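User: I'm curious what two different proteins look like when written out as structure tokens. Can you demonstrate?

Assistant: Sure. I'll show them one after the other, since each token string lines up with its own sequence. Here's the first protein:
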Amino acid sequence: MAARRSGLGWRFHTLWAATASANLADGVVLVALPLIALRFTNEPALVAGVRVAGTLPWLVFGLFAGVILDRLDRRKLMVGVTSLRGLALGAAAVVVTFFGTDIVILYATALAVGTASTLYDTGTQTLVPGLVTQDDLMRANGRVMSTQVVLMEFVGSPLGGALVAVSTFAALGAPGLMYVIAGLLLLRISGQHRAQSTDGGKAPPRSVLADIKTGLVELVREPTLRRLAVYASVLNLTESAFMSVFVIYAVGRTAPLRLSEADYGLLLAGAAVGSVAGAILAARLIAALLPALVLSAAAVLLAGSFALPVATSSPVVIGVGIGLAGFAIAVANVLMVTVRQSVVATGILGRVTAGTRLLVFGTIPFGAAFGGLMVKLIGIERLFLTLAIAAVGLVAVTATIRIPALRQSGTTPPGHYRS
């Protein structure tokens, strides 16, 4: 009855529960693997290598993941890869605990989990349109995104630290079990979820590279998708540049803000709180406001959060600014995902989604490197102002974006899956 009243249906709620279990495991793994690495080595580069191994698959394998999702049954594929994540962590738990090993095992585990995540996370965005109606896409995306933030940042991260304190076996085995539970939940979703090709399957098989090209061409060719990708990439790049050096500005007795490590964590929690609230309220706000206004507001509020540390030394004011920026960006993210799900044919949605995520996520390491370099060249406060100007400049991009109507009557899902 609750599922019927919500309009999202039991199949979406099953996906939601599975993704929640996987997101909780993601949060635990993100914290646990580097902490376990510290038991093998104190070398910073080797410890950081665990994070590199976990994120590298997005750059190397991300586009191939989109092709696979467009060729195979997406639900079955997600069941398989998330179960493999569980098995990889279970095997690592046994090996590290009972046989002892070096950090290479952690690298291999992070690489396996990261590779599976490119398929699972992209698959979630491609599966949602086939489970809910067009009218419910924004609400469904908002629930998935808000749950992701809560479980990864508020629950998973501290749980990961606590599990490492208990034992290495618990820190690796618990998230492994969560991944397996996610796979078992996905088995309950009925129907076939293989994307239909636009040619009805009559054309000869295409090469993987040709399929990748098709997705990238669609991303570049479609003006709305292209501009949204540019918009999201610049947002991520500027935010990454800011966060990579903000800790220097905020933490320590000689820092301008003079915060302790604990206070710094509370300050950043404002962004997470804002993100959760924004994702939950996104559907209502997008329905009430013009899409261009939503995107512009996110850029302006993010710019404000960059400039606030220069204008004030009040942690409360800065925290509120970061929280408002997190709120607005979450709303904009829900809008952008929903637009992509609505305008892209289901047969190439996996490839277009993978291409977008590769472009957007790929700016994060470049932004961090840019922030560190520019601090040495122009100083930290001038960097903050430069980033603020860049973010405000995105209003010129949002002014040219034409968002198609996202709501339509009827109950037919926009994704054309074979049932």
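Here's a second, unrelated protein for contrast:
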Amino acid sequence: MLETIKVETGETPYPILIGEGILLKHMLPEMQEMVMRRRWLLITDEKVAALYPNLLNVFPGEMISQVVLPSGENTKSMEQATAVLENMAEAGITRLDGVLAVGGGVVGDLAGFCASIYMRGVPWLQIPTTLLSQVDSSVGGKTGVNLKKGKNMAGSFYQPQAVWIDPLFLKTLPEEDFWGGCSEVVKYGIIEGAYMRQWLTDHWSEITSRDPALMAGLIKRCLECKAAVVAADEREAGLRKILNFGHTAGHAIEKMLEYKITHGEALRQGMLLELELACRLHWVSRDHCDQLKAFVKKIPVTTAIRNLNRSELAAAMAADKKNRDQRISFLLPREPGGIEEILLSPDEVIRLLAHSENLSD
């Protein structure tokens, strides 16, 4: 069954197609037609290339070449972006050609960033292969690379021509990466409210078994939420910030641990810390906070995170690109419902997070 979502973004609306086997078994006629219009440079990573060595044969259009990147968050660097751009120039890519990003969030962010700045912009397609990228990062046009100062500090808003999602890719996803993607799923459950959390709870066993039909429905639910937010606030001037719940602390944890943990595990811990902040600010009751924490903890720990220093964590969060006026931006749940922004000084964060789980003085 094919699911379709239209992302309405200014001058460049685009479709998301979600369906079991639409890439790994049979490409739809409308997909074939889009691919046949251009020549393509395919960008992927070592894990995807090893799992799907015949990936180029899936696409009926003319492939100029294939770029295989190292796997992992450290690939999102200006050095790797420069290498990809040089490869694009050497391959003779023009504005009439395009980029196929086939992989997880790292591949999508880097490939989209390169597509946005090469010749001031060439078309690109997103083909996400991980749960995290399928439910979140492939949609919305955020592209970027990391700098020494922090995550995604250099980037652009640059929408793809389309996003094509095949849940069959999830069958080969390592456990750690699958649970990392579930962190983004749980984030939507907190943003959307009790109905979404109950649906996720009722279907948790099918989710963990990665049933393709159920996963297609789950991906659609998450992306309908994101598409609506993106359409209302494409460049994150207001409403779109709610999607950053858990990410201020999560990105800081990733940076502190030198990206040696998955984004999803960092987000899991980030959500727990930010829920504790909301409770100590009296934005949510202790009972509600504990209920939401229990929901987050449905995701098993894949990498133990212990004894992060509070002051160092606050300093890392102080470098977040969302901050204003030397205060740290948090998007936190607030009863009776919804997510709201609050700006806190590093000293306030250190005080509020005293005696928190996995933090030390």
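A detail about the second structure: Residues 212-232 form the longest helix (21 residues).
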